[in-house]
Every structure is written in C-alpha cells, then in structure tokens.
C-alpha cells in the first residue's frame, strides 16, 4: 500500500563632523536599547524583544570632533572606546556588566560614539562567538564593519543550540543626550520547523481510519561548524563540510505514550519548543528521516520509515537548495492515502485435483 507524503514549505545625505564644545555636565552611564530585526523572518528569539537573560559583547568607537547624530561614515580615524565589553539587562536598562555584577561604562565628556554588538558571548561549544570586530570609515562611507569567527560551533542537541545575533555599527553617533542607544540585532542562523498532519480521504469510515503515530524525526548530514564574516547587515557563512554530523540531529523523539498521533490539524514535530537552529548551508545531501507507526484500530502497529530529501522541496514553486540566515523554513508534511491505497484482497480457490483410485487387485476382501 502506497502512502502519499505532501510537503508544503514556507519561509521573513552625509553630515560632516564639526568641533564640539566641551560639556561640563555629568555625562552619565551608557545604556543600550536593543531590539531584534524581524523584517526578514523570525527565529528562536521570536519577536523584537531582546532576551532579558542574554549578555552581549559591545564595541564603541570614538571621534572627538563629531557631534551627536553624526553619520557613521564620517568617523574616519576613530579610536576604540569600548572593546568587546559586556552589557546585560540590569533592572530596566542594558548596562555595563563584568564578573557577574554591574560595571558601569560612562560617556566621554565631548565628542560622540558609534556602537556595534553581538549576542550571546559564546557558541554551543562555549568558545567565543566572535573572534574580532573591525570598523573603519573614510570620512564619507563605512569601509569596514566586520564581525568574524573562523571556528563557530553549533550543537546537534536542539535544546543547546545558539541563536547568534549581531548588531552593525550604528548609523549615527551618540552622546549622553541619546539616553538609551537603540541597536538592532540580526539573526545569523537558520530556523527549521517540521509540522505534520493526517489528511483523511473523503468517505473513509472512522472505524477503519489508519492511525499514524510519529516516533522520531532526525536530520542527517548537517554541518555543525563553520566560519562567518558579517558586512554591516549581511553575513557570509562558510560551513565546514567535514563537520557534518556523524550522528543525526534528533528533532523529535517520542517513544511509547509520548509518540505523536497525527490528526487533521498540523502540529509541530519537535521536542524543543524553541525550534531547531542550524548554520546556514547548502542542503543538497541533507535528509529528514521520519520513523512512525501505522495501524488500523484493533490491529498491530507496524513501524515504517519515510525519508524526506530536503533539496527536492520547493518554496513558491522554486527548488530550495540552501538555508540562509534569518529565514524560518517550515516543512509541513501531510500523510494521506489515495483511492488506490486501500488494501483490497482478490480471493481465488485452487481447483480440486481429482485422483481416480483403482480398487482391483485384491483391495476388496469378501466375507
């Protein structure tokens, strides 16, 4: 009996610097106001609210002759003011943090600052998530705004993955007049969600309706390490193909009564409520293996497997060949049965074979 698997896939003028006057008023502590960029799509951090428990690494660059609101391109020969320092939410503000306690950083008395940041501080292997940040402007435009890491690692355990984000250098400079510096963070990873449902054919009796119960879903051949380099709001990933997981990424496992019985309503097939995050990469050889039980009520369960070749799935009619950052890929799998999928039996009876038995030759005894 042949089942049908249907997969629906969806995916989201230059101002010159002038000499500024020296302020003799208290400059105050630097505070940030981070938000997440969701114009392209959403991922594990699912809205614009920055995670309150997440520490960020912050860079700031200083120019003495730039007033508040100067364009970032005018920061030629800027000096480093904050060099990968920690900021964390403390009360209502994201402010300086060090060694597990508040550690204020203060505004310069004159000039202004531009800021860049990333979060979290470490990757899934507890190594620095960023190796370096470089910033350079030529007086009119930004020449370099690059976060870089040659050895980023993502976990194959979906509850330990890292939603790495970065915030490019702010478009304009800030002083203590800014109160809280607004910073927009971009998602560096790809977010994968699997959903499934059972579509009962019209006219199928409830008493004979097959029960489909998913026991596991795993991804094979996913690269778990890679290098990245950001360019303002864009990121370039180079996955390490040698790091493709020898063990599958288990997206869902539900043995026994924790197996997922499918209904007509599409549901997420995942153990981690925050989804599956992966390094952006080509998906030519990546497959999802689904293990499930199928049975008709009152009969024994039969374990089966289905292999979904992700490079054969499409978005809007176009073949999907790679996962890119800041995209949420939703694979909606429908288990269904066609009119030719019902089990029919064509009985026949083997004809009787006649054997004529001879009774001559003393077989009969007269008494």
Explain this structure to me?
- This protein is an all-beta fold and 367 residues long.
- 0% of the residues lie in helices and 43% in strands.
- The protein has strands at 4-10, 31-36, 56-63, 79-90, 93-98, 101-102, 112-119, 132-137, 142-153, 165-167, 180-187, 190-199, 211-220, 225-231, 234-239, 249-253, 260-261, 267-268, 276-278, 281-282, 287-295, 302-309, 314-315, 318-319, 322-323, 328-336.
- The strands form 6 sheets. An 8-stranded mixed sheet has the order 2-11-10-7-3-4-5-6, with no helix packed on it. Strands 1, 12, 18, 19 and 26 form a 5-stranded mixed sheet that branches.
- A hairpin with a 2-residue loop joins strand 5 (93-98) and strand 6 (101-102).
- The radius of gyration is 31 Å and the shape is elongated.
- Residues 11-26 and 38-43 have low confidence and may be disordered.
């Amino acid at each position: 009996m042949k089942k049908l698997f249907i997969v629906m896939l969806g995916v989201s003028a230059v101002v010159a610097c002038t000499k500024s006057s020296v302020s003799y008023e208290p400059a105050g502590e630097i505070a940030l106001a981070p938000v997440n960029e969701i114009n392209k799509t959403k991922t594990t951090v699912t809205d614009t609210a920055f995670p309150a428990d997440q520490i960020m690494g912050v860079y700031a660059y200083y120019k003495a002759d730039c007033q508040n609101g100067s364009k970032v391109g005018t920061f030629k020969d800027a000096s480093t003011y904050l060099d990968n320092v920690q900021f964390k939410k403390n009360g209502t503000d994201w402010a300086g943090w060090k060694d597990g306690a508040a550690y204020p950083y203060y505004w310069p008395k004159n000039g202004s600052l531009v800021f860049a940041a990333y979060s979290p501080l470490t990757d899934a292997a507890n190594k620095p998530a960023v190796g370096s940040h470089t910033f350079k402007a030529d007086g009119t435009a930004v020449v370099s705004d690059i976060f870089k890491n040659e050895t980023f690692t993502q976990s194959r355990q979906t509850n330990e993955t890292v939603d790495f984000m970065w915030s490019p250098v702010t478009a304009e400079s800030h002083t203590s007049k800014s109160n809280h510096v607004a910073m927009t963070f971009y998602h560096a990873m790809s977010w994968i969600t699997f959903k499934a449902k059972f579509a009962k054919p019209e006219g199928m009796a409830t008493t004979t309706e097959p029960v489909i119960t998913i026991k596991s879903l795993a991804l094979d051949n996913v690269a778990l390490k890679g290098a990245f380099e950001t360019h303002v709001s864009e990121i370039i990933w180079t996955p390490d193909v040698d790091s493709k997981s020898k063990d599958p990424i288990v997206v869902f496992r539900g043995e026994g009564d924790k197996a997922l019985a499918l209904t007509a309503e599409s549901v997420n097939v995942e153990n981690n409520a925050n989804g599956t995050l992966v390094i952006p990469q080509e998906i030519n050889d990546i497959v999802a293996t689904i293990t499930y039980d199928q049975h008709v009520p009152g009969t024994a369960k039969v374990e089966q497997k289905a292999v979904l070749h992700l490079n054969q799935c499409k978005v809007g009619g176009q073949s999907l060949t790679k996962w890119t950052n800041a995209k949420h890929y939703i694979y909606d799998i429908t288990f269904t049965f066609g009119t030719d999928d019902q089990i029919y039996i064509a009985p026949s009876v083997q004809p009787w074979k006649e054997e004529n038995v001879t009774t001559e030759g003393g077989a009969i005894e007269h008494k």
